[in-house]
Amino acid sequence: MTFQVKHARRLAKDHDLQGCVVLTVARDGTVTVTTYGEDKRKCDAIGAWGQGLWKYAVSLEPFQTVFGWGNNGVPRKITKEQIEAELDRTA
């Protein structure tokens, strides 16, 4: 099952939320970001924020090294270069 906007809508309604961003990791390592806002204005705002999250905040680790993103759900060993790149990014 793929997490869909209707699932995010149900989550928001069940918890009386104005909007929500849901990041999911499927068994095959696929990562998705799904957003929901209770009206068009809020939907547009949370959708744009969710796209920014996807573009700028979702790092390769832990998604490749724990969840197997891009490797059919099989975790990859973290490389020295990945560690160094992450340290440089967060410095």
Question: Which descriptors apply to this entry?
Answer:
91 residues, alpha+beta, 4 helices, two-stranded antiparallel ribbon, 2 domains
What does this structure look like?
The chain is α+β, with helices and mostly antiparallel strands. The protein has two domains: 1-58, no CATH class; 59-91, no CATH class. Helix content is 46%, strand content 15%. It is built from four helices and two strands, in the order αββααα. A two-stranded antiparallel ribbon has the order 1-2. It is flat. The chain starts with a helix and ends with a helix.
How is the topology of this model organized?
Blueprint: H1 5-14, E1 19-25, E2 31-37, H2 40-56, H3 60-63, H4 80-90
Antiparallel strand pairs: 1-2
- Poorly predicted regions are none
C-alpha end-to-end distance: 38 Å
Share in β-strands: 15-25%
Domain count, please report it: 2
The best one-word shape is flat
Strand adjacency order, main sheet: 1-2
* Number of alpha- plus pi-helical segments: 4
Task: List the secondary-structure elements in sequence, H or E.
Answer: HEEHHH
Biggest sheet overview: 2 strands, antiparallel
Kindly provide the radius of gyration, computed on alpha-carbon positions and rounded to a whole number of angstroms: 16 Å
Q: Which structural class do the helices and strands define? A: alpha+beta
Helicity, in percent?
A: 40-55%
Please tell me the overall pLDDT: 85
Number of strands: 2
